[in-house]
User: Which sequence fits this backbone?
């Protein structure tokens, strides 16, 4: 399975209403140390969902990029709608959508 | 949850891969994920590097899939050489450093072909311009 | 002392390497048609290239990353590909124009038809890229390019009414016989000629080729902050020479030979010889830069090994792209396509494609995970943001203006 | 714009521009007298620049300020350019009788200018650089005729 299969996939609530699309995927390096390597395994932790713009990979919300003011304001606003939804709260069956298990997402805004 | 947090799209996808000598050997065109039978969680197991994977990611599923399959047929039907196991990564930064030799990766296949059939026949191809 | 000499040499190289066929044609044309009324566009373009080239050099020195690597990382593979296609196409037009420009410079010295010289020039460009060390290559053609300083000597020898020139430049207006559309169109041409994207592709890749580190940041700053503005002054000298000699005679510049005419008519044979060497060096240097840039941007998008700092066989795909680009440019040049027209299109289309290249640079130069504590300061960010807005406006109006003015002739 | 559309747009713009650069020429078909007159003035303006260039090159060379190859190539370029302008103008269909007169008037000036430039080129190729001023003298009349034409119709 490829990560790109998750990206741009629509996320819907249990009642079928759309929450937006997957714009990025949050990984946490807390798995076991990989055999033969030095890196701990990367666990797929959550998907970043937003309704708006697709190009949210500039680091204004999730990275440490702070300037310049013009871009921070523009992209901060575009990315503001984005929030993380834990993969544990999602059902990923063969269908085209990721479905929320219940309609009470404990998802929270990015870091 | 205490480990380092990485955003795949921001910090891994499309980043440069370098081998142990610092040679450039492809970009991270996609990531392979697998569900662990033990914990039931999804883990990133490998970087995917190759034009087939990139095309698939860009929505050219059929063309990309065909390139990936033909690649596998020519080389080794048993395993997908476009996959570079995550365990080979020695550093995940703006560049991703791998503890391998670039020549052993599938991304070097076209490099080798161009070298053996074209550039390698031109005089002086072995000499770095004198400093 | 040695360090000082190295910095000084770098600045001289930057001055001589600043001007290419785009600057020559655009400055000469506008000088003849608009006098100094468009000098502000050169100043605007030079400040822009200084701001962004300094960022590129700093990113390359600190993070070791060339521009097109960052383009794909920040724009993603699809928008990155769109930029790659556009940039490659424009770069190809520029390469063709530069190769033809070298051939014309040689033809003006030998009276052999420039078409016969194009294959020879193309081979020479490839040979230099294949064999000559990066630093030597940059130095030789940059320093020879300083011959173009005869344009400044020409202007000085004419002894113009300096106050008048400066007044026109600082109080610009649309001259009689020109429309507002052509005025803006040529302003964009000058702006595009100064800010051509290949300059930053080459500049940042060159910094990686020369293994710049944080210790080279001062050199970077000196080259860019002193060298580029002086190169811009050279552009203005070309414009002024055309304003003083070609404009009053009613000459509209459509050939490279006309660019050199003010120098010959004022300074005579010696001046003409020097300016032809300058034309040769400037176009040859830029031909090398654009040919390499073709290889750089494709390799960096694909993640291939690139560069002259390894043996050619270790970066064979890169060298293949360079070789094929030179070959294609040679063939396009041989179709008798008008080199000056190709130049005009390349600089105007450059202007349209600018934001796609400069935007990711600005983002990365602010990203501490790449830059550590060497991120942009507030002042720099303010100027860079203003420029980003200008670049976007320019890119929106360029293509409509190209059509309305029928390529500046209307 | 979606990125894939951007890729397509980039390709389309590149294609359109390559086409445009092949066909772009300010002189197209003319249906009325005034468009014909406009095109005549465009041709005359281009001719003015060519004639002025050759005059300046000739006087520069005659003053010993330019060497042979530069002079020959510069003059030939203008000769070729002006012949092309002449040919293009001649190929435009004049829409009415009034336009016929205009066609004859400018045609005569252009032919004369091309002939005089050819003489300069011939002399330059023979190496008679010192004499070039005298050979180029007839161009003064052509320049005056072009100026008058543009002033009358521009």
Assistant:
């Amino acid at each position: 399975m490829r990560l790109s299969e998750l990206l741009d996939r629509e996320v819907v609530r249990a009642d079928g209403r759309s929450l937006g699309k997957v714009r990025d995927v949050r990984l946490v390096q807390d798995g076991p140390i990989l055999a033969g390597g030095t890196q701990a395994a990367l666990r797929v932790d959550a998907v970043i969902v937003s309704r708006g713009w697709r190009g949210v990979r500039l680091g204004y919300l999730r990275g440490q990029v702070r300037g310049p003011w013009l871009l921070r304001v523009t992209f901060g606003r575009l990315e503001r709608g984005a929030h993380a939804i834990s993969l544990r709260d999602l059902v990923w069956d063969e269908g085209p959508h990721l479905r929320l298990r219940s309609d009470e997402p404990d998802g929270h805004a990015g870091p | 949850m205490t480990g380092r947090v990485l955003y795949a799209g921001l910090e891994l996808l499309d980043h440069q891969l370098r081998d142990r000598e610092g040679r450039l050997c492809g970009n991270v065109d996609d990531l392979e994920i697998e569900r662990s039978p033990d914990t039931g969680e999804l883990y990133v197991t490998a970087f995917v590097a190759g034009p087939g994977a990139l095309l698939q990611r860009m929505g050219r599923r059929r063309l990309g899939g065909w390139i990936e399959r033909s690649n596998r047929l020519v080389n080794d039907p048993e395993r997908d050489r476009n996959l570079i196991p995550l365990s080979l990564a020695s550093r995940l930064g703006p560049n991703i450093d791998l503890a391998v030799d670039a020549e052993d990766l599938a991304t070097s296949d076209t490099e080798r072909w161009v070298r053996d059939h074209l550039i390698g026949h031109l005089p002086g191809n072995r000499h770095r311009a004198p400093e | 002392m040695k360090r000082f000499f190295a910095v000084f040499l770098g600045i001289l190289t930057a001055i001589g390497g600043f001007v290419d066929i785009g600057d020559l044609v655009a400055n000469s044309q506008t000088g003849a048609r608009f006098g100094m009324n468009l000098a502000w566009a050169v100043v605007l373009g030079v400040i822009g290239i200084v701001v962004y080239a300094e960022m590129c050099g700093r990113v390359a020195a600190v993070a070791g990353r060339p521009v097109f690597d960052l383009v794909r990382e920040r724009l993603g593979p699809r928008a990155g590909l769109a930029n790659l296609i556009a940039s490659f196409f424009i770069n190809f037009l520029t390469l063709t124009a530069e190769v033809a420009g070298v051939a014309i410079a040689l033809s003006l010295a030998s009276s052999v038809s420039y078409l016969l010289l194009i294959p020879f020039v193309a081979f020479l460009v490839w040979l230099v890229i294949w064999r000559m060390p990066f630093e030597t290559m940059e130095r030789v053609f940059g320093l020879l390019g300083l011959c173009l300083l005869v344009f400044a000597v020409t202007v000085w020898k004419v002894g113009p009414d300096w106050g008048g020139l400066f007044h026109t430049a600082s109080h610009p207006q649309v001259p009689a016989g020109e429309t507002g559309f052509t005025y803006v169109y040529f302003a964009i041409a000058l702006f595009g000629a100064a800010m051509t994207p290949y300059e930053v592709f080459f500049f940042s890749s060159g910094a990686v080729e020369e293994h710049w580190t944080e210790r080279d940041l001062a050199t970077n700053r000196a080259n860019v902050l002193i060298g580029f503005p002086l190169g811009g002054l050279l552009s203005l000298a070309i414009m002024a020479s055309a304003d003083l000699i070609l404009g009053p005679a009613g000459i509209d510049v459509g050939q490279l030979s006309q660019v050199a005419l003010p120098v010959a008519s004022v300074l005579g044979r010696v001046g003409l010889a020097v300016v032809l060497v300058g034309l040769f060096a400037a176009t040859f240097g830029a031909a090398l830069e654009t040919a390499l840039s073709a290889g750089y941007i494709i390799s960096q998008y694909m993640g291939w090994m690139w560069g002259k700092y390894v043996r050619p066989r270790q970066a064979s795909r890169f060298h293949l792209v360079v070789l094929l680009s030179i070959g294609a440019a040679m063939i396009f040049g041989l179709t008798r396509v008008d080199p000056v027209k190709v130049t005009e299109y390349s600089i105007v289309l450059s202007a349209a494609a600018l934001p796609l290249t400069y935007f990711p640079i600005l983002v990365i130069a602010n990203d501490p995970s790449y830059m550590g504590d060497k991120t942009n300061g507030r002042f720099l960010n303010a100027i860079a943001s203003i420029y980003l807005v200008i670049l976007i406006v320019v890119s929106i109006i360029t293509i409509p203006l190209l059509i309305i003015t029928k390529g500046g002739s209307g | 714009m979606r990125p894939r559309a951007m890729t397509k747009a980039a390709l389309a713009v590149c294609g359109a521009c390559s086409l445009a650069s092949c066909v772009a020429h300010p002189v197209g078909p003319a249906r009325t007298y005034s468009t014909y007159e406009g095109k005549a003035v465009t041709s005359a303006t281009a001719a003015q620049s060519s004639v002025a260039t050759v005059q300046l090159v000739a006087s520069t060379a005659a003053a010993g300020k330019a060497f042979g190859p530069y002079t020959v190539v510069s003059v030939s370029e203008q000769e070729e350019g002006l012949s092309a302008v002449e040919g293009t103008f001649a190929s435009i269909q004049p829409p009415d009788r009034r336009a016929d007169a205009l066609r004859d008037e400018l045609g005569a000036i252009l032919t004369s200018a091309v002939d005089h430039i050819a003489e300069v080129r011939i002399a330059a190729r023979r190496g008679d650089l010192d004499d070039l001023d005298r050979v180029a003298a007839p161009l003064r009349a052509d320049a005056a005729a072009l100026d008058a034409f543009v002033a009358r119709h521009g």
Notes: Chain A is about 10% helix and 30% strand.
